[in-house]
């Protein structure tokens, strides 16, 4: 196996204003399944093709947003090694015991230069994707909503962009797939720990740290993206923009909001990334095209509405 | 019975059904008089001061609507439904508190 170290986005905890309204959205609109509820009132959900116990955790709070994002690593040895490397880089590391989140092993948490809380973990109970591992069918019965197979990536914003990018590329081993520069200021960095065009996107904010832009769910085809748009119309979901295509990543996309104003994306397509590929450059005078390729301009809401 | 919503500074009024938020009734027509953000009580884009009229509301982010705001009719247009004719003033606030 050549994919080692940090494997993939594993889970994130979203704060929501009304837990049952949020559960209804993430199950009936997105199409996730509930896999657990804990004694703190947190609700755990997963997409159908994820084998691990959960990828989205919801908790009720009076301010929406994201408490932390977490990446799964390949082993406990890697977890220990990366925890030391992150500490050496200059981030204070906290250890959360196994079981603090349901069905999840020990987690290592640290605050990155853009102010976000990031976790690494090596173990989470495998509950399977409902197909079995011997002669499986292509998809399970009972799919609902937009039926994404997995949570895909996050986009987060903060002031100290170069620091977070350095941590992810030099310490956590991410590849740098695409970037936007304005003269010498780094405006956006798209990073991959896999063959996806991005597992995380960092965007420059000139005033605020620790901003959450969106969590994305993967869809297999453009047709499925259009079907997701039908669901947005049918269920009166708050639309941001789309269906459209990104210049960056070439992905096909819709952005919309959950009932607390946290932005969601459904994302399809893109390309296969390998670590020997060059980093694609976008210039600020073509930022509109970079983000929304056909319309070639950004709406103010997309740039400024965040939780 | 639908209610009439007026946004301070503009002559026209908007027709708002009881099951429509104040933001929604101003968003669907030609004149968007209230800024539209997430429409879900999270971003504070559509914050208004209610000048006249009554409404029912849902939960909104405390980052944008404090208890004092809520008690004094400074609320998010996306989270209020009219129970009478209303007049509101736009209070643009786009940054996270």
Detail the topology: elements first, then pairings.
The complex is a heterodimer of chains A (307) and B (97).
Chain A: E1 6-16, H1 19-30, E2 33-37, E3 43-46, E4 56-60, E5 65-73, H2 76-89, E6 93-96, E7 107-111, E8 117-121, E9 150-158, H3 161-171, E10 175-182, E11 185-192, E12 200-204, E13 211-219, H4 222-234, E14 238-245, E15 251-257, E16 263-269, E17 280-283, H5 287-291, H6 300-304
Parallel strand pairs in A: 1-4, 5-8, 9-12, 10-17, 13-16
Antiparallel strand pairs in A: 1-5, 2-3, 3-4, 6-7, 7-8, 9-13, 10-11, 11-12, 14-15, 15-16
Chain B: E1 3-7, E2 13-16, H1 22-27, E3 47-52, E4 55-57, H2 67-71, E5 74-76, E6 80-82, E7 86-90
Parallel strand pairs in B: 1-7
Antiparallel strand pairs in B: 1-2, 3-5, 3-7, 4-6
Structural account:
- The complex is a heterodimer of chains A (307) and B (97).
- By secondary structure, chain A is α/β, with parallel strands linked by helices.
- Chain A is built from 6 helices and 17 strands.
- In chain A, strands 14-15-16-13-9-12-11-10-17 form a 9-stranded mixed beta sheet. An 8-stranded mixed beta sheet of chain A has the order 2-3-4-1-5-8-7-6, covered by helices on one side.
- The mean pLDDT of chain A is 96.
- The model of chain B has no long low-confidence stretch (mean pLDDT 92).
- Classes of the chains: A alpha/beta (307), B mainly beta (97).
- The interface between A and B is medium-sized, with 22 and 18 residues.
Question: What are its keywords?
Answer:
heterodimer; A: 307 residues; alpha/beta; nine-stranded mixed sheet; eight-stranded mixed sheet; 6 helices; 20% helix; 37% strand; globular; B: 97 residues; mainly beta; five-stranded mixed sheet; two-stranded antiparallel ribbon; 11% helix
């Amino acid at each position: 196996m050549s994919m080692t170290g940090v494997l993939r986005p594993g889970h994130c905890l979203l704060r929501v204003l009304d837990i049952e309204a949020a559960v209804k959205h993430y199950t009936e609109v997105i199409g996730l399944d509930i896999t657990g509820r804990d004694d703190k009132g947190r609700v755990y959900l997963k997409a159908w093709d994820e084998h691990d116990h959960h990828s989205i955790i919801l908790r009720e709070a009076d301010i929406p947003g994201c408490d932390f994002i977490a990446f799964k690593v390949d082993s406990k040895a890697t977890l220990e090694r990366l925890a030391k490397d992150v500490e050496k880089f200059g981030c204070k590391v906290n250890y959360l015991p196994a079981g603090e989140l349901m069905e999840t092993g020990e987690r290592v948490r640290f605050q990155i230069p853009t102010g976000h809380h990031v976790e690494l973990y090596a173990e989470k109970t495998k509950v399977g994707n409902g197909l079995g591992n011997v002669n499986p069918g292509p998809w399970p019965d009972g799919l609902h909503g937009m039926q994404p197979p997995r949570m895909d990536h996050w986009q987060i914003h903060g002031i100290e962009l170069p620091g977070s990018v350095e941590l992810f590329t030099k310490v956590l081993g991410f590849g740098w797939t695409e970037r936007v520069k304005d003269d010498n200021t780094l405006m956006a960095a798209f990073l991959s720990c896999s063959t996806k065009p991005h597992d995380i996107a960092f965007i420059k904010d000139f005033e605020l740290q620790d901003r959450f832009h969106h969590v994305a769910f993967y869809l297999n085809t453009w047709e499925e993206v259009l079907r997701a748009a039908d669901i947005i119309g049918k269920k009166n979901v708050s639309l941001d923009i789309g269906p459209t295509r990104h210049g960056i990543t070439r992905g096909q996309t819709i952005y919309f909001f959950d009932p607390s104003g946290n932005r969601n994306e459904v994302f399809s397509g893109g390309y296969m990334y390998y670590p020997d590929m060059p980093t694609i450059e976008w210039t600020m005078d073509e930022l509109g095209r970079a983000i929304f390729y056909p319309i070639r301009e950004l709406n103010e809401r997309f740039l400024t509405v965040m939780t | 019975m639908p209610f009439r919503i007026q946004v301070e500074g503009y002559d026209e009024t908007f027709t708002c059904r009881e099951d429509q938020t104040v933001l929604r009734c101003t968003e669907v027509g030609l004149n968007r008089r209230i800024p539209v953000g997430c429409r879900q009580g999270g971003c504070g884009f559509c914050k208004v001061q209610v000048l006249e009229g009554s409404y029912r509301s849902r939960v909104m982010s405390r980052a944008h609507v404090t208890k004092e705001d809520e008690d004094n009719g400074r609320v998010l247009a996306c989270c209020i439904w009219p129970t009478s004719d209303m007049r509101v003033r736009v209070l643009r606030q786009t940054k996270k508190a």
